[in-house]
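Q: Focus on the chain.
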Amino acid sequence: GGDAAGGRKVMFLGPTGVGKTTTIAKLAAVQALLEHRNVLLLTSDTYRIAAVDQLRTYAKILGVPLEVVFGADNFPSVLDGHPEADLVLLDTAGRAQRDRRSLEAFKTLYDAFAPDAVHLVLAANMKYGDMMDVVEHIPVSHLIFTKLDETVSCGAVFSVQQTLGRPVSFLTAGQNVPNDIETASGKRIADLLMSSDRERRMA
């Protein structure tokens, strides 16, 4: 469903190393190829050339435009240049956990882009405290959990979800675009919880 994205303008954030860019590429693939939507990819991650190149490669394969946003005042011209886009996905720089500067830069981006939804991308194998730190200052609307293939216990995932009371929009496991992404269903989350609970008891 197209509605799992939560609107037309969607922003993604999360700490470094959670697979955010790959996740956005997977989403773009699903939306462009399966839902036949006009997707526009944006990235404000101008710090890591590799992240931009990675997204650019995916954009080429998918036949989807990619624009690099160099600052908040860039948004109006970029969006005006793509009136056909009915889904705009914004990748942001992965921020170090306690970096005040990047948090302020992020707020500025948020205000300028005025997203309909903000998806926080977290790795299922992260520690609970690390996960919570990211969300304290930011109006997150959805959660995405990655690396479900790399964790035995999904306990932290559920704690975060309970604490924040935000819906989980997508789950990913593995690096394949676009196969390893799924819309998070209650049943799937329950299955995960049961299996990680079983493994904990057996350990």
The two ends are 37 Å apart (CA to CA).
